Amino acid sequence: VQLQASGGGLVQAGGSLRLSCAASGSILSIADMGWYRQAPGKERELVAGITSGGSTNYADPVKGRFTISRDNAKNTVYLQMNSLKPEDTAVYYCHAQIRRSNGKYIYWGQGTQVTVSS
Known about the structure:
mainly beta, 7-stranded mixed beta sheet
């Protein structure tokens, strides 16, 4: 199983980016999916999460600016980021709880850099 993230880049403050993360491989089902981020010198933190049923939760700093969604048919999770701020600069990692034939496992994507210039 692999998680392949894409969509990061360099954007000016106030701009938007959309991250995508597709899971592939031997997958029976996917439970929770989410996005985390890690800025230089800081710990990895949850940005947003979404359940298989579509319930969402967001970290306070991104509420009202970021939107998480998923396409279960494509095993893909998205993060629409609007009104970006320099403090959103970080490496963003996708995360998924995946059920396989031999159990339930947590997987991480490789990370995608988001840089917001002031």
